[in-house]
Amino acid sequence: MNATRVRHLENALGLFDQMRRGETPYLPLDLFLRRYFQAHRFLDGTDRAWVAEKTYELHRWRGLLDHVTTPPHSWVNRMRTFFLSDRWRSQTQNPNLPHHVRCSFPKDLFSRFEASLGTKAALDVCGVLNEPAMTCLRVNTLKMSRDKVFSFLTARAVPVEKTLTSKVGLVLASKQKLLELPEYKLGYFEIQDESSQLIASQVDAKPGELVMDYCAGSGGKALCIAPPMLNQGHVWMHDPRDMKLFEAKRRMRKAGIRNYTLLPPAHPLLPKLRTKMDWVLVDAPCSQTGALRRNPDMKWAYTDERLWQWVSLQREIFEAGLKYLKDGGKIVYATCSTLDEENSQQVRFFCEKFGLYLSRPPLHALPQSRGMDGFFCATMERR
What we know:
The strands form two sheets. Strands 5, 6, 7, 8, 9, 10, 11 and 12 form an eight-stranded mixed beta sheet that branches. A four-stranded antiparallel beta sheet has the order 2-3-1-4, covered by helices on one side. Among the domains are: 135-191, Alpha-Beta Plaits, CATH 3.30.70; 194-382, 3-Layer(aba) Sandwich (Rossmann fold), CATH 3.40.50.150. Strand 5, helix 12 and strand 6 (234-238) form a beta-alpha-beta unit. The protein has helices spanning 3-21, 29-39, 45-60, 62-68, 75-84, 99-102, 107-117, 119-129, 146-155, 182-185, 194-201, 220-225, 242-255, 304-322, 344-354; strands at 135-139, 160-162, 169-172, 189-191, 210-213, 234-238, 260-263, 277-283, 325-335, 356-358, 363-365, 375-382. The chain is of the alpha/beta class. The model has no long low-confidence stretch (mean pLDDT 94). Keywords: Methyltransferase, RNA-binding, S-adenosyl-L-methionine, Transferase. This is SAM-dependent MTase RsmB/NOP-type domain-containing protein.
């Protein structure tokens, strides 16, 4: 085994725990690894891939590893159990172990899944969430059709398939060096999970309409919403994080989208835009329980107390976003959670408090094996 790789794996795991206990308790694992590799540029691509893969896998199976490893529970001891033998993996089928231990999930979170889905379905979902995440692409139809991008990638021997549900998505059968492909540099496609594409597709904005993406982040959903508008009408993108909006600006420019405006906090246009929007999208921050494949560390940060904090924040954000909806407009509420407390129960609350009704049945998908992440999406309008 490569000693350099093992040393960096141990170092990365330890540093991540330190950051979680320090000033950045909610820093996601993928962002941490990006920063770690930027600080250790001498590691080549294969070393980085190995360290990243093992970091993710150790976080996925942390609970089960702790159960079969002699205390104290440390990353050094977990690594020893993980690498010395694969016998610990057989414990995933041990019927004598508690369900949450077998699937390596926190007891409180597994209990939430079990209460909502039943024991068998909860075990199935946890099994899927312990798989590596798939790489999905979204085609920019302003520049090229999905069929043409599919043909280009196939001609370059990139194993790719069309997504089953999203009309602009592609799935890679294995990871590729996508960032070096000319089609990526030209803005023909970006990496985006199919679930995010489906959420954005619920905002059926036509050319000339006005859209408020109230939790825009780095612009992933807006990049889906804008192309069918043909650069007519307008997409307003609000987020409290300036750095996210800075990234959104770069992505929108690369995609050739011009009909947008960034709205950081306290922007003078925000009060003037109230009651003007045909569509409002509230892609609310949540527990991310439908997307734990991408950041498996988040399941170990879960607590019921934090869940209720998310619920409270979602209600606050939705109420603020609703102020921008005009009469006859539609508001779309979405999460990447599988928990009823953040999804159907929230929609029931919104409809009762604000006099709304569902325009169409909600979309709710559990995470799929070798497929998209779990998500929830509901479209509402005023009575």
